[in-house]
Amino acid sequence: MNQVLDVCFARNVRDVRVAESEEERSKWWASRKTGFGALGAISPGYLVEDGVIPRSKLPDVLEKVKKSLRKLGINF
């Protein structure tokens, strides 16, 4: 978690909040799921691609994303 926070702050993320309890974490996930439903209701053409990456594979996936961005000329 500290490494993720370090990356966020190095990239000038404005605000990072870490859940202080399991209850708070569950509420955030519930809100996130509700948000997509609300977006669909007000914008039926909105497409959501929401995938899950196992934590153990996240470094590999992020490296592939960085390579793809570089090919497009986007420095990450």
What is the count of β-strands? 0
The termini sit apart by: 20 Å
User: Which structural class matches the secondary elements?
Assistant: mainly alpha
Largest beta-sheet characterization: none
In total, the number of domains comes to: 1
Please tell me what the overall shape is. Answer: extended
Separate helix tally = 3
Q: Extract low-pLDDT stretches.
A: none
Radius of gyration: 16 Å
Question: Percent of residues in helical segments?
Answer: 55-70%
Order of helices and strands: HHH
User: What fraction of the residues are assigned to beta strands by DSSP?
Assistant: under 5%
Query: What is the mean pLDDT?
Result: 86
Describe this structure in words.
- The protein has 76 residues and is mainly alpha-helical.
- The protein has one domain (3-72).
- It is 58% helix and 0% strand.
- The chain is built from three helices and no strands.
- It is extended and about 35 Å long.
- The mean pLDDT is 86.
Features:
mainly alpha; flavoprotein; extended; 3 helices
In summary, what is this structure?
With 76 residues, the protein is mainly alpha-helical. It has helices at residues 2-10, 22-42, 58-71. The chain has three helices and no strands.
